Amino acid sequence: MTAVLYDLSLRMGYIYDVPASGARHIMRLMPLSLTNRQRLVAGSITISPTPDEQSHFVDFFQHPATAFMLRAPHEELDIRMQARVQVESQPIVADFSPLLADLPEEIAGIWSLAPDSPHHFLGDSPRLTPTREIADYARSCAKPDLTAMQIAHALCTRINKDFTYDPDATTVDTTPLEAFKLKRGVCQDFTHVMILALRSLGIPAGYVSGFLRTIPPPGKERLEGADAMHAWVRIWCGETIGWIELDPTNDIPAGTDHIVVAYGRDYSDVVPVIGVLKSYGGQRAVQAVDVIPLK
């Protein structure tokens, strides 16, 4: 196995038309340390203006999060994160996943309700409710002689082929059905559509939030979505294999180009910065990402 070391920097901010007189926010921005997958070597986050209160906690899906409050009026919020992360290459996994018809029996055999239990990733979630159009789309890829892993790969490839990456086509609040009808969008849209498609077939699937390598290796094309935080899909393929991760935006398995920040059922579980503020008028968001491999 090989490993790639990255220096990662993120600037995320909001500029308000009218100063906000107070705000409360929760952040999930720091990459995780995951056994045999990636290691957070060092990291820091700075917030401007300096919070009046700040606390740290771990959410249900075991992600470190930071809550902070600003009492004084402020015209903008500026968050900067820097980290050094080592990402390990993953071994090629042979397909020992069950046929789709046999997957429910394996799911039923899982009694755990731990954060990574497949039971949490089968039904509705805050941003994802079943839609007939996406279910019909999924069934076209679910041939009876295919395994759960083969179906996941087939859906990943088809979504990548049928959808166009277009950062101007959707917003963070676009529903999966709206994006599906447009056949355009960004990584969040590709990921939500694929999760709904898999769940409609009874295959547990979840959302991965993270970062994507900014500078490609020599001779390789730059991946879509590298200018901002990225998203891809986590799929449970039976007891023997467990979870795999696929990136439908680029039609590739998640590998050393992908740095994990959080796992969840959908985007609502992993929002990088969420909160409330006292203000009126509009706001403008700013985001810049650099994921630089170290020589």
From TrEMBL:
It holds the Pfam family Transglut_core. It comes from the Bacteria. Residues 179-250 form the Transglutaminase-like domain. Gene3D superfamilies: 3.10.620.30. InterPro entries: Bac_transglu_N, Papain-like_cys_pep_sf, Transglutaminase-like. SUPFAM superfamilies: Cysteine proteinases. This is Transglutaminase family protein. It comes from Rhizobium croatiense.
